Target: NAD(P)-dependent dehydrogenase, short-chain alcohol dehydrogenase family
Amino acid sequence: MTGVPGGFRLDGEVAVVTGASSGLGAHFARLLASAGAAVAIGARRAEELETVRRSILADGGRCVAVATDVSDPARCRALVDAAVTEWGRVDVLVNNAGVGYGARAEKDDPGRAAGLLEVNLLGAYQMAVAAGRVMIDAGRGGSIINIASALGLTAGSVPQAAYSASKAGLMGLTRDLAAQWSGRHGIRVNTLAPGYFASEMTAPLLEHEQGLADAVARIPLGRFGDQEELAGPLLLLASRAGSYITGTTLCVDGGWTMH
Model:
């Protein structure tokens, strides 16, 4: 009889997390640290980022924080370089940085949409390249996890074409990078696509009674997800427990995309 696998631990490994100043990014950073990884965290809001760093250190973890704008390739490299300088390696990248807004496409501002795509899609690409180069040079493989959304697979009740396009694009980025790097370099690349979870982005919906009711009505499990329900999926993709998973999208949405 096979026992419960211990491969979910990340002891001795180094993870980089973007968009880690609050919400899911901060949760992912704390989770990876609790699993044994040293964590380099990046986000634009330096003060909030420092708060997350201190909380990880207070819990006995290892963490460095670097103010990072993923739309700037030099800042992407600086975050990865900080991890290498501190600990000599990068094993896991969680591409979590993202922005969002709702707007009808015919009324949307092209400049605003371009800015969203620059952060959500181009930023993720630039971070993946920066981390991927380090992983390739080290020759130890690694794991890249692109945080997308169930909205990359289906339409929501709020019109947000630019956001949905960026998240669908992340899934395409995942597949191509997996094809390039998994077999040749042992770098697994996957997408984690959450459905509705309480966060800064979903706060306006949670405060809107009818919007909340409409969203929940489409979720077979009948509720928003809890951040802790992303812990297992993230660790699966980050760790040796998911060593045979690459190029795929893991949707954690309470069944929402079935509709």
Remarks:
- The chain has a mean pLDDT of 92.
- The first helix runs from residue 23 to 34.
- Residues 14-251 form a domain with the Rossmann fold fold (CATH 3.40.50.720).
